[in-house]
Amino acid sequence: MANEENKTNQQEENEKAGKLSGLGAGVITGAAIGTSILPVVGTFAGALVGGVVGSEVGKKVGGSLLK
To answer: Count of domains in the chain?
Structure first.
């Protein structure tokens, strides 16, 4: 029982780490793309969209990679 609980906690930690790394990568990438399309407003909008997409992708992919 304790072993299963430990695995669940580890999986949750991996998902959190993946989400944060995806968020960071998404914000940076989105800001770079947004800046090239619309210099002032695009930076913020790109970072916002990139952060949302990156955190979701990071939660799914990053959690699996950290197993």
So the answer is: 1
